[in-house]
Amino acid sequence: MVFEILSLGVCVGFVVLVVILLALFYIVSLFNGLISLRNNIDKALANIDVLLKQRTDLIPNLVETVKGYMKYERATLENITRLRTSMINANTLGEKATASQAISAGLKSIFAVAENYPDLKASANFLDLQKQLSAVENQIADRREFYNDSVLLYNTKIKMIPDMVFASLMGFKEKEYFKVDEADKHLVDTKIDV
Asked: Is 90 helix (H, G, I), strand (E, B) or coil?
């Protein structure tokens, strides 16, 4: 009888130990997975920042190149310069997204106005800058999509049961998407003086 009680106690203790080890393994695995997802988000945002800076650095060259040709387009050039300043001063993800959207629209305005200036369109420097800016715009769109996909995976993980309980206890909070609010899309003045 004593042997059976002792044997039963060992079995129960073994089961409890296995359950505790499995729970611990689950929590460590969840924590490491969330850290990995969060690091992917940080990396993706850093890549976007690099491209935004690269585009911002190209804008003064573009303005300088088109200035001589587009004498009557002063407002367009001032607008893109103002938008560049707002991009440089953007601190939050929302501000960066809004400024990025505005710069994209401003660059489209400059390229559209350039159609009215055959000498400018033929300028090798202008064509090179236009090509570089278009490439950077495409890379920004790709990186933004990767960032938002990473945020979707992370946000989904921390909202699923039972992960949401442990993620909340470990301090993991929802991340913001790189997007422009509908109201902010219409704040950009890209008026072209012809």
From this structure: coil
Using only the alpha carbons of the chain, give its radius of gyration: 27
Number of alpha carbons in the 13 Å side-chain half-sphere of residue 42: 6
Q: State residue 52's pLDDT score.
A: 95
* Residue 88, amino acid: I
pLDDT tens for 73-127 read 788 888 899 999 999 999 999 999 999 999 999 999 888 888 888 888 888 999 9
Among 96, 106, 98, smallest CA distance to 51 is for: 96
- Cβ neighbors of 144 (< 8 A, separation 6 or more) are 48, 178
What residue segments make up the domains of the chain, in order of their start? 41-185
Give pLDDT, residue 191.
41
In this structure, what are the phi and psi dihedrals at residue 189, rounded to the nearest 5 degrees?
-100, 105
Helical H runs in the chain? 2-67, 74-89, 93-114, 118-122, 124-159, 163-169, 182-185
Is the distance from CB of 34 to CB of 154 less than 8 angstroms?
yes
What CATH topology corresponds to 41-185? Answer: de novo design (two linked rop proteins) (1.20.1440)
